[in-house]
Specification:
The structure holds three protein chains of three kinds. By secondary structure, chain B is mostly helical. Chain B contains twelve helices and two strands. Chain B has a single domain, classed as ABC transporter involved in vitamin B12 uptake, BtuC, CATH 1.10.3470. Helices cover 76% and strands 3% of the residues of chain B. In chain C, α5 runs antiparallel to α11. The chains are: A alpha/beta, B mainly alpha, C mainly alpha. Chain B: Belongs to the binding-protein-dependent transport system permease family. LivHM subfamily.
């Protein structure tokens, strides 16, 4: 593909597929409290490379806090997070992106001042030449790499099913398309691990079905997928492993089948 | 030696008290609306100039001050109703530029009405100064300190004991929650602008026997009040008072012992030091965490 | 909001044509003088707009960078006998270092800290310029040598022969200022269109989104702060050579406010908007001279009213209106390719 060398040491893409192999993630005794409330408490689990993992639990169980801890938006009070065996807890999100971690957000984080394609091109940031002088003087090599980046972004938009919005401004796109746009942007970083925070929230059933196929295709490319999701049908259909949280603690863990029959889980969900 | 130090201290605490009042005005408005109101300094000018021209018409001093404060209060409320409220959807930067426009407008208006000359109000007490351990203290300084203390106490009571005060506090902590609890945000913000204008006008009226007053006095006093608020952690009432006093004393000591040319630089050097080494200000950490 | 209507029009050629038309329509020393000053200030705010409009950070001390460029050139050429070009480059380097030193710790913080820091820095610089008369001439100001490159001197009082035509010094200076403005716009646009510019726009769109895809946002904020300071310094240097005499007035808080006001008035994030803002704001005092006594009042009033009724600034608001009148045409032309 178009591996561009640069002084800014961009992440080197895997030569074969342009995509690195999935990363594995281990969380050890992770804790985070907000003013006395334990959002995540002494949580330990392991996510295997290349699989689809779901994190579920009632509202306020600490799922999004967990994501924010793993992706560096929050600093953990205690505990460790290991990405491919390397400790990463407390690392800033921009550094984690270099290590192949990417995510989407429950409350959309799309740059509404840019077009759809530009939002995805932003995801290519680490893979681009970011030479300052070249930018100032609009060198031809920069124009070529921007053109290639734009092509790549359009390809990704088609991949996530946003082909109708190749020319759209982000501010003119419907909610469901913006959710897929976020996935395309995350994929543009060529992640080893992708964290999806409630990707199906607010989608209709046709859109959810499309999302289900998309997540499976992403995992098939070797990307480790972790998703927080409320749609149980989706979770049970595609996840290899499910982690159930309740009040920031691990309630259960296992295959969808195991979790479905776990008495604690049934009690937590039915007992509210 | 000691008398000299005491002299600088008196003068520092006096200007510090004025800065504290201005800083409290900034803090009030910032807490209620997150706007840095650059027109705050103009209310100091209005307090002094309006008192002066009313005195010139033969109005007795206490009434003149009262009317000047009333005028500032009305202008403060109008500033919010006519300029800030209609643009409340805009960027914070845009709102700040609006307050700068208001500040230029008020200054221009004052220049048209009152001219460009400098004036001094007569001292409030007959006796101009007293001697304390070899240092001269103006009786007006005592007036300034007394009035500032009273106002700070009154504000503290207002925020802890009255419903309206608590509503302002609640709004500054969490706008959304306050709205849900039935607080009328726009009213609260207007009240904050009005109170800030009153604080400024009082500062202007009590200070002008010492500092003199003119149409353009609001710029520097306003900026220094802002620095005092920022030193205190922009948003903290205690911080504003402490920041004001610290700034006043630091300025007086610099002017006395180092160089009076660089007296005005102290405030701005302090703000740089504070930002570099303790960016949340002296009392701001609590406020910052809430956000 | 991206401005589809103006961005479809090639801005740079239009600007070049307008700049060419000015001396043809208004060939008069008085107007050329104003136009030259407007062009230099416009180039300054094009740089400031990169910081305000794209990185969402506000500098309340940009006049000080402008003044440092001006005084740097004045002192290095006057007191130390340097030629203008190395002098202005050296001043710009100094300003860049200063901006970097102040910006680096502060741009890591969230909030309006940069505006407070630049406010403080700006006023301190103004006070120093006022007080250190031995170096700066103090409140009375300091004369500046005419601009020259390789022995060729450009003075408003001279006349020049170009291709057999006699060109007045004022016109020659206007041409230089025009070229500088075009260059400033070209470089700013290049930067905005590059990956660096995209990262910066993302800071304004969603900083957290930018960070999770690997954008080191505080690094880019710092970069753009330094660049905007260098813009101000360079234009300050040219301004000093042009006017031939500078005073501490250049460094005042009021001047900083004027610069930031131009950006907000013209339209944050709109390069051509801020140029229009510069034209209007600098012409306004000329138009208000008849009202003399009421000048300041009216200036404040106009500023307030514009910001209340057009909070996004002149050009974005007007082009937004245009877009609303022809929404279909704009959208369909977008869908075609």
């Amino acid at each position: 593909m178009h591996a561009v060398p640069s002084q800014n040491d961009p992440v080197e893409p895997d030569e074969e597929k342009g995509r690195r192999a999935g990363a594995d993630l281990a969380v050890l005794s992770l804790s985070k409290a907000f003013g006395g409330v334990h959002a995540v408490e002494d949580l330990t689990f392991h996510i295997r490379a290349g699989a689809i993992h779901a994190v579920i639990g009632p509202n306020g169980a600490g799922k999004t806090t967990l994501f924010n801890l793993i992706t560096g938006l929050y600093q953990p009070d205690r505990g460790e997070v290991l990405l491919d065996g390397q400790p990463i807890q407390g690392m800033a999100p921009e550094r984690l992106a270099r290590r192949g971690m990417s995510r989407t957000f429950q409350n959309l984080q799309v740059c509404m001042n840019m077009s759809a394609v530009e939002n995805v091109m932003l995801g290519r940031h680490l893979h681009l030449k970011r030479n300052f002088l070249a930018a100032l003087l609009r060198w031809p090599s920069l124009r070529r790499s921007e053109q290639a980046c734009r092509e790549k972004a359009r390809e990704l938009l088609r991949f996530v099913g946003c082909e109708a919005y190749l020319e759209a401004e982000a501010s003119a796109m419907p909610y469901g398309a913006l959710k897929r746009l976020e996935i395309a942007r995350a994929l543009a970083t060529e992640p080893g691990i992708l964290l999806l925070d409630e990707p199906a929230a607010g989608l209709n059933s046709a859109e959810t079905a499309a999302l289900e196929r998309l997540v499976v295709r992403i995992a098939d490319q070797g990307v480790t997928v972790v998703l927080v999701e409320h749609d149980m049908k989706l979770v049970m259909a595609i996840s290899h492993q499910v982690l159930v949280l309740d009040y920031g603690r691990k309630l259960a863990e296992g295959t969808p089948e195991e979790v479905r029959h776990n008495p604690d889980v049934i009690a937590a969900y039915l007992g509210g | 030696m000691f008398a000299e130090f005491l002299q600088y201290l008196f003068s520092g605490v006096t200007t510090g008290a004025i800065y504290a009042l201005v800083a409290l005005g900034f803090t009030l408005v910032y807490n209620a609306s997150h706007v840095i109101n650059f027109a705050q300094g103009e209310f100091i000018m209005i307090g002094g100039m309006a008192t002066l021209s009313l005195l010139g018409m033969g109005v007795p001093m206490p009434l003149a001050i009262g009317l000047a404060i009333l005028l500032a209060a009305v202008l403060g409320a109008l500033l919010h109703q006519l300029a800030i409220a209609p643009a409340r959807q805009a960027d914070v930067v845009t709102l700040i530029i609006i307050t700068i426009g208001a500040s230029i407008f008020l200054r221009g208006l004052a220049q048209v009405i009152w001219g460009k000359e400098y004036h001094a109000l007569p001292s409030f007490s007959e006796q101009e100064s007293i001697e304390v351990m070899g240092a001269v203290m103006y009786t007006q300084s005592l007036w300034i300190l007394g009035v500032t203390t009273l106002l700070v106490l009154a504000l503290a009571l207002f925020f802890t004991r009255t419903l309206v005060g608590k509503a302002i506090l609640a709004t500054s902590m969490n706008r959304q929650a306050a709205r849900l609890m039935g607080v009328r945000i726009q009213f609260v913000v207007m009240l904050a602008f009005t109170l800030a204008a009153i604080l400024g006008a009082v500062a202007g009226a009590v200070a002008s026997p010492i500092t003199l007053t003119s149409y353009d006095i609001g710029i520097m006093l306003g900026l220094k009040g802002f620095v005092a608020a920022a030193i205190g952690g922009l948003g903290s009432g205690v911080g504003a008072v402490v920041g004001g006093l610290l700034l006043g004393i630091a300025e007086a000591m610099t002017a006395g012992y180092i160089s009076s040319d660089y007296k005005d630089a102290v405030a701005f050097l302090l703000i740089l030091v504070i930002l570099l080494f303790m960016p949340r200000g002296l009392f701001g950490s609590r406020v910052a965490e809430r956000v | 909001m991206r401005l589809s209507v103006p961005s479809k029009i090639p801005g740079l050629p239009v600007l070049a044509i307008v700049l060419l038309l000015v001396p043809i329509v208004l060939n008069d020393e008085f107007y050329l003088d104003i136009a030259t000053q407007v062009a230099l200030i416009a180039a300054t705010v094009v740089g400031l707009n990169l910081l305000v409009g794209y990185a969402g950070q506000v500098s309340l001390g940009h006049a000080a960078f402008f003044a440092l460029g001006a005084y740097g050139s004045a002192i290095l050429t006057g007191t130390y006998g340097w030629t203008p070009v190395p002098a202005l480059l050296c001043a710009a380097l100094l300003v860049a270092t200063l901006a970097w030193l102040v910006g680096r710790p502060i741009l890591r913080l969230k909030g309006h800290y940069l505006s407070m820091a630049t406010l403080g820095l700006g006023i301190i610089i103004a006070i120093i310029i006022n007080n250190e008369g031995w170096l700066t001439g103090g409140p009375d100001g300091i004369p500046v040598a005419p601009f020259s490159v390789m022995g060729f001197e450009l003075s408003i009082f001279d006349e020049y022969q170009v291709l057999g035509m006699t060109v007045s010094g004022a016109l020659a200076w206007y041409a230089l200022a025009g070229v500088l403005l075009l260059l400033a716009v070209w470089i700013a646009q290049n930067l905005i269109d590059s990956p660096i510019g995209r990262a910066l726009r993302a800071v304004r769109g969603s900083e957290v989104a930018a960070r999770v895809v690997g954008v080191d946002t505080s690094h880019y904020k710092l970069l753009i702060f330094v660049i905007s300071a260098v813009y101000a310094s360079l234009m300050g240097s040219f301004f000093a050579h042009y006017t031939g005499f500078i005073t501490p007035q250049l460094a005042t808080f009021e001047h900083s406010i004027e610069l930031i006001t131009i950006v907000v008035l013209g339209g944050m994030g709109s390069t051509y908007g801020v140029i229009i803002g510069a034209v209007l704001l600098l012409l306004l005092p000329q138009l208000l001279t008849d009202f003399h006594e009421y000048e300041m009042m009216m200036f404040g009033l106009i500023l307030m009213l514009t910001m209340i009724f057009m909070p996004r600034g002149l050009l974005p608001t007007l082009s937004g209106l245009l877009q609303r009148s022809w929404p279909r045409r704009v959208r369909s032309s977008g869908q075609e390719d």
